[in-house]
Amino acid sequence: MIRIAIDGPGGAGKSSVAKAVAARLGIVYVDTGALYRTIGYYVKEAGVDPHDAEAVSACLPDINIEVRYENGVQSVYLNGKNPGEAIRTPEMSMYASAVSAIGSVRAFLLETQKDIARKNSVIMDGRDIGTVILPDADVKIFMTASPECRAQRRYDELSAKGMTVKYEDVLAEMNERDKNDSTRDIAPTAAAEDAVVFDNSGMTLEESVDAVVELINKKVGC
Ligand code: DC
To answer: Please, is 209 exposed, middle or buried when counting C-beta atoms within 10 Å of its C-beta (0-12, 13-18, 19+)?
Structure first.
């Protein structure tokens, strides 16, 4: 069993890199942001203010989250239904960020994440994987890049999905979200003390994947 933690701000390429590394090593990729996005989606549909901790907490007993792997691809089911791409919009990014600052939401998702890592060799990406979810991970990487570079990647990603967005808006929203995520009281985005900080500004996806695989090989020799 191997456990790899990848943390860092939005747009650093964590999910694309982790997905590719998982395929190369034959291990499970866990996208923990999808869990917070799914709670954000429920809260939005319920017409609840995502900043209202009490109201969001009151929703939790009605939420059942299930992570399934179908042909090696993670799907998050919300009360038996897969919301699919609906959790990937910029609006849902902000909802996810807001609900993720609430302690009861983080507690609600803790066991789901730990349980997947108990049962599988994983590469898990998020904000608090190396610090909270997998403090004993075999390899911890804090992946980052310049704000402009990260915003450009996010812009390209959203445009490729057919969403009409402005680069300036993407940059502003990303900065706001990163500020929320890294300054919140509970489990803020942070590099674990024993994490390797990897800045991939200007690197292609391939180059980042190669660098991460090399890092993992050096640490655990697999
Ligand atoms: O990785 P992402 O952009 O899909 O994450 C969406 C939001 O979820 C992010 O703004 C903060 C929150 N999140 C978190 O608090 N902890 C994690 N481990 C993963 C995501």
So the answer is: buried
Ligand 1 within 6 A of 37 CB?
A: yes
pLDDT value of position 182? 96
Considering only CA atoms, which of 20, 108, 1 is closest in space to residue 63? 108
Share the mean pLDDT of the chain: 96
Residue nearest to atom 18 of ligand 1 (CA): 126
Atom of ligand 1 nearest to the CA of 93: 6
Are the C-beta atoms of 165 and 30 separated by less than 8 Å?
Answer: no
Q: How confident is the model at residue 221 (pLDDT cuts 50, 70, 90)?
A: confident
Facing residues of 112 across strands? none
DSSP 71-100: TTEEEEEETTB--GGGGGSHHHHHHHHHHH
- At position 123, the amino acid (one-letter code) is I
Residue 95 Cβ inside 6 Å of ligand 1? The answer reads no
This prediction has a pTM of 0.95
